[in-house]
């Protein structure tokens, strides 16, 4: 079984609309001009780098934005251009809500279970409903159709529908999911959550908790996971209030290694004890205290939003955002991991600032999918990274993406047309078929 990182290609409308309360970066960059072309190229460079380490890499396409489907559902009529112009007249907020390129953060696209861990021996994928926030909830339907197109072979893949919408089963995808495994022990799934729909659990006071316990429980059922191999830790309310809106802002794990902040989970010592029992002596965890790494620095520099990757030689490498190198406490923590007895032997810092400014680091930009060679061969779409695909995607970005996008540009009726033209071409490059509503 090999891990493939499916990175989200940044969409042409990447912008800073301040849509995510509790996501400090999104709030602090609101209204700034964005650079969609640079953002997409930064993402492609990350894919190139991860692939050069010998790690499986693939790509997921962006979504049509502004979402004309959403605007029409809200009562705007006429040609596509008229819909945009009429929505713009109602106020810029509607266009901000329907224009986000947030599908780039594919950690939130779905939750995935590998075939080794499921009762029916298939890979299970559930698109996240992202019910907590309107601009993200718009992603679920298209994500479902993208995943159905790529993982279409039902012998190997079960693509479920998103959980029912609404607050009870609010699901943010793999941003709250970690799979740990040691040789000789079954994989253990952490399905974390921030609030409960019907249990009285103390929650954050300042910022919203997104994922519910009940959504995490539903995912474990849908994915046919052995209940002995599933844990449901609660995100620490103080961590959420410090800006950790998803688990992956304060914790990341890979196989036998977990690094976490003490404010990632409620009762982290208890959690680590259970993990040691389940995973045996090979399991390694490194905890940052608030004294070593103040939560403020952890949220600003995102060292936990790194990719922890197993390399072909069996050692691990961390791919962290450059902000972690620039923040002494974050850098010191990552260097401590290198110095201690852990499988991690290298830390690499990459520039994904365009995404970071909206609260998305390297780990947010990728969805992990574990595939056997047979499962890999059952995928016909051209989504696996090669240098040739890189060249054609980079050329495609240069052909279609604007260099700068300012808030008022979202009212430009040409932007939707440009995006549709670009995405239509992309579905041919990636051999995805007609996955978008405007192609139906
Ligand atoms: O859902 N930002 C995203 C960032 C998601 C990061 N993903 C993970 N941690 N896995 C969010 O808050 C901001 C969009 C804006 O404000 O324009 C946004 O949606």
**Helical/strand content category:** alpha/beta
Measured as a percent range, the helix fraction is 25-40%
Overall form: globular
Oligomer: single chain
Give the names of the bound compounds: N~2~-(3-carboxypropanoyl)-L-arginine
Strand content: 15-25%
Q: What's the CATH class, please?
A: Alpha Beta
Largest sheet: 3 strands, mixed
Number of helices: 17
- How many structurally independent domains? 1
State the fourth-level CATH superfamily.
Succinylarginine dihydrolase
The appropriate CATH architecture is 5-stranded Propeller
How many β-strand runs? 15
> What name does CATH use for the topology?
L-arginine/glycine Amidinotransferase, Chain A
First-residue to last-residue Cα separation: 36 Å
In round numbers, the mean pLDDT is 98
Give an overview of the whole structure.
This protein is α/β, with parallel strands linked by helices and 440 residues long. The protein has a single domain, classed as Succinylarginine dihydrolase (L-arginine/glycine Amidinotransferase, Chain A, 5-stranded Propeller). Helices cover 35% and strands 16% of the residues. The protein contains 17 helices and 15 strands. 55% of the residues are buried. N~2~-(3-carboxypropanoyl)-L-arginine binds next to loops.
